[in-house]
Amino acid sequence: MLRRLLYTFGLVMLLPINSAAQGPLLWERQEDFHGGHDAAEAITLSGKTAIVVGNSTEPLDGDDEHDLVVQALRRRTGALQWSDQAFLSSCCIENLFLATRQKRAFAVGTRREPGQAASAFLVRGYDVPTGALLWENVWTASPNAVDADHPTDIVAGPTAVVVLGYGENAGGNGLALLVRAYDPLTGAVLWDDRVGDDNVDVIGWRAAVNRNRLFVAGSAAPAANPAASDMFVRAYEVQSGDVEWEVSRTNVSPVELELSSGRLFVAGASSGGASATYLAALSAKTGAALWEDTAPLPGFFNDIAVKGSRLVGAIQVGAGFAIRAYDANTGAIEWQENSATPPGFSEAVLAVDMNDKAVYVAGRSTQDFRYSELVVRAYEGRTGALLWDDRSHRTNAGVNTFADVALGKHRLFVAGFTFNDAANADFLIRAYDVRKGAAAGP
Fold first, then answer.
1. How far is the CA of 427 from the CAs of 34, 110, 236, 283, in angstroms?
2. Which one, of 1, 37, 8, 21, lies nearest residue 419 by Cα?
């Protein structure tokens, strides 16, 4: 579809610093595109631009139209640089994924053409400065199956853009891992891989990439018992698709994968007996285990971030959450902060990022049958002391959520959705000042 200008959208809010906020808010952008459900799902940075991907729903007389939305915003002001929409389906809202590299942005979602049973990967590449569509690829890996193909991640390296997900296996009795690598500039397919087994669901969940290797973390479980999940992590030679190594762990499900300084960090949950967090560091070159967390918590990781010698995880623990910092070299726990969640409340932090001085998390807080609100928190990086706690957009119309964060040198960006007076969710992006001495409101 053609890029649509700002004036074609619904409600747009650009706010100055909010003196009543509990965090150092710089600006906020809230949009209702067509009067339906709109939700920002991922945000990343490219130069002076913040790139956001999300869903937009246009209510129609028949089936509603669900679109992929990609926006480029000025990091300093939140002003719209460009925007693009592309049709996804007439039936469903699903996760979207985003990556950037060298002034190019790449997005992937699930496309379902009207009247067709099969689904497909919709992959689009953009020029960040102009918003020009560089290329598009629609990949129906399982053309004879009903709604089988779904992406779960996208990553962009110096030499390849890779999408990850799952589709139907050869026997039609389970799911197969799907991987496809593209040339970043042209969208030409470099290689693809499909891994499946009879009556088994093999799913790739997260990926990481550098110049030489692609890393994939996934799970394999009997189709009749998805809870009996074993984790696999495999490394591909990024240009050829040749598998260089693979390791596995029984009764583990991966949630996040991060690559830093030659180490691959895998976070998720163990499913043997009572569910507990799982975290490990592997050698990126060989897959050899460097360390594994020896003090797991009851729950699972929602997100991790790595900076230098520190790793921080956002962990769901029952109705509350924990933030835990590790020494990335050894796995030793440096500090831990638990949310004080009273009865009748539930809280979740779904995204985390960090710099040398602070850790930032974003998510939501809900009082049962009363309201929900958005939460952004900052912790001192060395000790875990709470620096500020920002709560906003309290509503009883739905469950507001921040789904992703991106951290620049001076600003923190959070992306998600908030329900408006019409009980429809709006796109929501907020930017905070993270410079030393930035004043938080009372």
1. 11, 19, 36, 39
2. 37
Residue 9: pLDDT band (50, 70, 90) is very low
Q: How far apart are CA 436 and CA 341, in angstroms?
A: 29
Query: Tens of pLDDT along 20-63?
Result: 335 699 999 999 999 999 999 999 999 999 999 999 999 998 88
- Please report, as a single letter, which amino acid is at residue 394: R
Phi, psi of 7 (to 5 degrees): -70, -10
Helices then strands (H, E): number in the chain? Answer: 0, 33
Burial of 396 (0-12, 13-18, 19+ CB in 10 A): exposed
Q: Give the CA angle between residues 180, 185, 187 to the nearest 5°.
A: 35
What dihedral do alpha carbons 421, 425, 426, 429 form, nearest 10°? 120
What are the backbone dihedrals phi and psi of residue 20, each rounded to the nearest 5 degrees, phi first?
-90, -5
Residue 340 main-chain phi, psi, to 5 deg: -95, 90
Q: Please give the sequence-ordered ranges of beta strands (E in DSSP) within 133-242, or none if there are none.
A: 133-139, 150-156, 161-168, 175-182, 189-195, 200-209, 213-222, 230-237
CA 375 – CA 394 distance, rounded (Å): 10
Question: Which residues lie below 8 Å from residue 409, measured CB to CB, with a gap of 6+?
Answer: none
Q: 0.85 cut: is pTM over it? A: yes
The vertex-405 CA angle with 401 and 406, nearest 5°, equals: 160
**Whole-angstrom distance, CA of residue 125 vs CA of residue 123:** 7
